[in-house]
Queue: 2 jobs
Job 1
Amino acid sequence: MDRTLKLAIKGQNNKRYYRHIHYPEIPLTRGDIYIITSEGDRLDLLANQYYKDTSLWWVITCANPGVVSRDSFYIKPGTQIRIPNSIMDIKKKYEELNF
């Protein structure tokens, strides 16, 4: 799922602009998985491991505010993070907010 594909807008002089992306709130659910990160863990690799889609790294970031930084894929080893299990619901909410 390319998050930005549908957000592109062509402006003057054929320059491409993007609308602001809105991310859904991700509530706690019973099926969420909690892990302790290891050396070499990255958001995109974890998204691939749990969701089979590297572009869903933002789900893990949004589920861990104040714990995971939005400016890097890297996570400090030994950090406990939540991996949301309700990915279909999250993707649906994302699409409702942005398209």
Job 2
Amino acid sequence: MTQTTTCNEYWAATAMAATPKTKTPVTIYGEDGSMYIGHVNECGAKHGEGTLKTAMYLYGCMGDDNSHVLRWTEYTGNWCDGLLHGRGAMRYMSSNEVMQVVHDGVWSHGVPI
């Protein structure tokens, strides 16, 4: 029989067993060029606090002032079983130091609320 752990159970257990071994973040590199730094659950899914940065891509038209601007998406916040869940901020970032906030607030199972 498989035991299912809810987010609340996870946080309660994590708070009670707050040792360096259970709080060590990991770094995961995705095949798409993304990078995640944060906590995972026993199945390896993003779970707890962490930051996901997508791969960079070139933005703009050739010859345009912004033709060499790199852009990426970054989410920093809470996760539950691989989904954005809890407090977190999603931003579009660029190499010319422009940041656009997509949503800074509460997420529920991957959806901003």
